[in-house]
Design a protein that fits this description.
The structure holds 3 protein chains of 3 kinds.
Chain A: H1 2-14, H2 16-48, H3 64-73, H4 85-102, H5 120-128, H6 131-141, H7 145-176, H8 181-187, H9 193-196, H10 198-215, H11 227-230, H12 240-265, H13 282-304, H14 310-337
Helix pairs in contact in A: 2-3, 2-12, 2-13, 3-12, 4-5, 4-6, 4-12, 6-7, 7-10, 7-14, 10-12, 10-14, 12-13
Chain B: H1 2-13, E1 21-25, E2 37-43, E3 46-53, H2 61-65, H3 70-77, H4 85-100, H5 106-134, H6 139-159, E4 168-169, E5 172-173, H7 181-204, H8 207-213, H9 221-226, H10 232-235, H11 243-246, H12 267-289, E6 310-317, E7 322-329, E8 337-341, H13 343-349, H14 351-355, H15 360-370, H16 374-378
Antiparallel strand pairs in B: 1-2, 2-3, 4-5, 6-7, 7-8
Helix pairs in contact in B: 3-4, 4-5, 5-6, 5-12, 5-15, 6-7, 7-12, 12-15
Chain C: H1 3-12, E1 23-25, E2 32-36, H2 38-50, E3 58-66, E4 71-78, E5 85-92, E6 99-101, H3 110-121, E7 124-126
Parallel strand pairs in C: 2-5, 6-7
Antiparallel strand pairs in C: 1-2, 3-4, 4-5
The chains are: A mainly alpha, B mainly alpha, C alpha/beta.
Subunit structure (chain B): NDH-1 is composed of 14 different subunits. Subunits NuoB, C, D, E, F, and G constitute the peripheral sector of the complex.
Keywords (chain B): Cell membrane, Membrane, NAD, Quinone, Translocase, Transport
Pfam families (chain B): Complex1_49kDa
């Protein structure tokens, strides 16, 4: 009896219980968030495409994706006979775990932040590039040529666009002087960084959004899936819940890309002109509003643009975005050095 | 023992030899529009060889026709190029009527032409939607279908069917047009005139789309002729081959229209030619819709049609190109041999020629602009 | 060029009376028909395509026909310059091993169409680079569009 209470005490005292609870809450909330992002995407797509979209399950189809998730859970998991079973099963976890890990560092309000580390941005960049390993594994171990081509494209794409994401964020770090996300938001109390940094910040934001869309493998950069070319790309051979992990990860990644942009460029949970400064919980509202506007922007890309070809994708990155980014970095350094930033 | 074998293979494979590999595109694949199977030989992303494997939807319609009456054959042609079903029907009817030296009423000719051009627009709107989808712009599909739906409603009212219409019979039409027909076609023309610029705004002007299609799958005029290409594919290469111009049938000799031509020969040129064709089809319909002559909608034929002994050929311009019906008759109620010259087979045969050297994405864009309908190829 | 002129031009290529002359007819057809022997086929086709007066550069239809005793191929030719149309017919009496010259070196479109004829009629085309079945499977026995083809399970014979 005593030993059990000792163990419980140990859990409570060391914070492991807290950690587990927070992790559980995060997992539930963001799994649901992912599902509703899918629903949002379908609604937005329908809106773009002269359709109504899901409207049967629940009020306005609100439970459609929940029903879809239940269907996927109950589905049989099939796979190719000659697949590398271990890697094949490992791949979806790689993808989903890394995308959930990234969520830990976001400050949703001043107090609502699971993990405030002083290298926040660095952590985000590092984590987001691990996800591609899952895609590469999945594509390679499926023993399917379409999946393999998709995975190889993904490797090429992520390695390339990682540079632009990193560099455009680095440009903003010059302005903030800190990698810690909470501090970055503190800095923005005297004006969102996109205003403070004006021209170079806007350039950095545009590059970030392009590269970020490419990072999430979404149209117009969905070479990895490219359903008209490769069937379903790297997850051709996945079914049921394993497929759902890939699918969910894509949507959570989209949220992460938008959340990073919100935090770095648009003041995170800060309200515009400080209108709700006295209500700290409103921070969450503002954070989500800004993030969803950016998510909507990415959906807008997807439903209007055709897909690039794989060589055009690389041309865009290495011949245009990367040089512009490097020049922009110098420009930002000069602006900070000459104190030309706009402070409200 | 086993490890030794394993090691020797690992050593052999470790010196990074690059190899071409095969990939099966189809018969179930989103970009092959049905059950076409392409055997691709690929080096990384670059296409080395494209070999179509056909026959997944072969129904031997030519053999079936040999034991059917001429009225029945008309129905089989719906199932060839199902997107140009009306024009296919018309081809057989014209062939039979020519053989019988039967003069059909003017009313029939005009109605056939109007419906044929509506079919062409319907086919091209569907192609446009699918074209966008093949290059990754999913939204176009629904815009194309929105306008196609209006045409299908018109068909449904008059012919009773939306896709396989069977409206033509040798000697005229199955029945007269619906009283609403003229009104609804007149509603459609301004509607579609206002929607075509929308197509341009959504897809044609898009920089990514232009990058994906310009200079991709270039077909020279000589090759187009040599490979027997027809329709928009050939016209985009500068080969003027519109059957409606050179061998006008039905009421097409009475209307003014310009043949859509381009000289670039790439996928974008084929795209532009089809868009221009939609405009021209609207012009043709507009010229005819107010002047449908009064009269009978068919002339009486014998219940059992017997063609005189001889060879009869009729070519028409479907949405995909030159469709030909070749009937060899020995004077019986059944044809001795029927050959359907499908535009799709000739157009597909040049795919290997123009796709080699491109990327997988280029192949998909090229195939979309060739606009194949597999039942038309397999017959 | 009208049909008479075409006929004269083509006959002028074969002045030797010993040599089998191509036979012309317009009976029962709206086009000028030309019947030739298998041995002559490729040479005639070559001339028809490359002679600037005829210039038949567009082969728009290639049809295999089973005439009962003979197997034949019908070529529908059009000139993209002169816009005249002509039909060339060739027959072979050998039903066991019918061989004709391939014209796919003259018109690339013949490649697929000759494969189709081979598939359905079993006519072998000499010098065809890839003569295998186009629609049917490689294991298919017989040539279905021949008049003597029987398939008791799949064919409804009236």
């Amino acid at each position: 009896m005593n030993s059990i209470s000792n163990i419980i005490d140990w859990f409570i005292n060391t914070g492991v219980l807290n950690m587990a609870l927070i992790a559980l809450i995060y997992l539930t909330v963001f799994a649901l968030l992912g599902l509703f992002l899918v629903l949002l995407e379908r609604k937005v797509a329908a809106w773009f495409q002269l359709r109504i979209g899901p409207n049967r399950v629940g009020y306005l189809g609100l439970f459609q994706t929940i029903a879809d998730a239940l269907k996927l859970v109950s589905k049989e998991l099939t796979g190719t006979v000659k697949a590398d079973k271990f890697l094949y099963n490992l791949a979806p976890y790689f993808v989903i775990v890394t995308s959930l890990m990234a969520l830990a560092v976001f400050p949703f309000t001043k107090d609502l932040q699971a993990f405030d580390i002083n290298i926040g941005i660095f952590f985000l960049i590092a984590i987001s590039s691990i996800g591609v390993i899952g895609i590469l594994l999945g594509g390679w171990s499926s023993n399917n040529k379409f999946a393999l081509i998709g995975a190889m494209r993904s490797g090429v794409q992520t390695v390339s666009y990682e540079l632009s994401v990193g560099l455009s964020l680095l440009t903003m770090v010059i302005l903030t002087g800190s990698l810690q996300l909470s501090e970055i938001i503190e800095v923005q109390k005297s004006g969102w960084l996109i205003v403070q940094g004006h021209i170079p910040a806007i350039i950095a934001f545009m590059i970030y959004m392009i590269a970020g869309t490419a990072e999430t493998n979404r149209a117009p950069f969905d070479m990895v899936e490219a359903e008209s070319e490769l069937g379903a790309g790297y997850h051709t051979e996945y079914s049921g819940m394993k497929f759902a992990y890939f699918f969910l990860a894509e949507f959570i990644n989209m949220f992460i890309i938008a959340a990073i942009a919100t935090t770095i460029f648009f003041g995170g949970w800060l309200s515009p002109f400080g209108i709700t400064e006295s209500l700290p919980w409103m921070g969450l509202f503002w954070f989500l509003v800004k993030t969803f506007v950016l998510v909507f922007l990415m959906m807008w890309f997807r439903w209007t643009f055709p897909r690039l070809r794989v060589d055009q994708l690389l041309t865009l990155e290495w011949k245009y975005l990367l040089p512009i980014n490097l020049v922009n970095l110098v420009l930002m350094a000069v602006i900070v050095w000459l104190n030309l930033t706009i402070q409200i | 023992m086993e490890t030794a074998v394993l090691n020797s293979t690992t050593v052999k494979k470790s010196n990074f030899k690059s190899e071409e590999y095969f990939i099966n595109m189809g018969p179930q694949h989103p970009a092959t529009h049905g059950v076409l199977r392409l055997l691709l030989t690929i080096d990384g992303e670059i296409i080395k060889k494209v070999e179509p494997d056909l026959g997944y939807i072969h129904r031997s319609i030519e053999k079936m026709s040999e034991s059917n009456s001429y009225q029945q054959i008309v129905h089989l042609t719906d199932r060839l190029d199902y997107l140009s079903s009306h024009i296919n029907n018309e081809a057989v009817c014209l062939c039979v009527e020519n053989a019988l030296e039967l003069e059909v009423p003017e009313r029939v000719k005009v109605i056939r032409t109007i419906l044929g051009e509506l079919t062409r627009i319907a086919s091209h709107t569907l192609w446009w939607g699918v074209m966008g989808m093949d290059v990754g712009a999913l939204t176009t599909y629904f815009y194309g279908f929105r306008d196609r739906e209006m045409i299908n409603d018109i068909f449904e009212e008059t012919c009773g069917a939306r896709l396989t219409m069977n409206y033509n019979i040798p000697g005229g039409l199955m029945q007269d047009i619906h009283p609403n027909f003229v009104k609804r076609v007149k509603e459609f023309i301004p509607h579609f005139r206002s929607k075509l610029p929308e197509y341009d705004r959504l897809l044609t002007g898009n920089i990514i789309f232009q990058k994906r299609t310009k200079g991709v799958g270039v077909l020279s005029r000589e090759d187009a002729i040599n490979f027997g290409a027809s329709g928009p594919v050939a016209r985009a290469s500068g080969y003027s081959c519109d059957v409606r111009k050179y061998h006008p049938y039905s009421a097409l000799d009475k209307v003014n229209f310009t043949e859509a031509l381009d000289t670039a020969g790439d996928s974008f040129a084929r795209y532009k030619v089809r868009i221009a064709e939609m405009w021209e089809s609207l012009n043709i319909i507009e010229q005819l819709i107010d002047n449908i002559p009064e009269g009978d909608f068919k002339v009486a034929t014998n219940a059992v049609i017997k063609l005189p002994k001889g060879d009869f050929y009729q070519k028409v311009e479907t949405a995909r190109g030159e469709f030909g019906v070749y009937i060899i008759s020995t004077g019986n109620k059944n044809p001795y041999r029927v050959k359907f010259r499908s535009p799709g087979l000739s157009n597909l045969s040049l795919l290997n020629h123009i796709a080699v050297g491109g990327k997988i994405g280029d192949l998909v864009a090229t195939m979309a602009t060739i606009d194949i309908v597999v039942p038309d190829i397999d017959r | 060029m009208n049909n008479e002129a075409l006929q004269q031009t083509i006959l002028s290529w074969f002045p030797d009376p010993e040599f089998p002359q191509p036979q012309f007819t317009e009976e029962g057809s709206q086009f000028l028909n030309l019947s030739t022997e298998p041995e002559q086929l490729h040479e005639l086709m070559h001339l028809l395509k490359n002679n600037p007066e005829t210039h038949f550069d567009y082969l728009f239809c290639l049809t295999g026909v089973d005439y009962g005793k003979e197997l034949g191929v019908v070529y529908h030719l059009e000139s993209t310059v002169h816009r005249h149309i002509m039909v060339v017919k060739v027959q072979t009496a050998d039903r066991e091993n019918p061989i004709l010259d391939s014209v796919q070196d003259l018109w690339a479109t013949a490649n697929f169409h000759e494969r189709e004829v081979f598939d359905f009629f079993g006519i072998k085309f000499k010098n065809h680079p890839n003569l295998k079945r186009l629609f049917l499977t490689d294991e298919w026995e017989g040539y279905p569009l021949r008049k003597d083809y029987v398939d008791e399970t799949n064919m409804v014979v009236k």
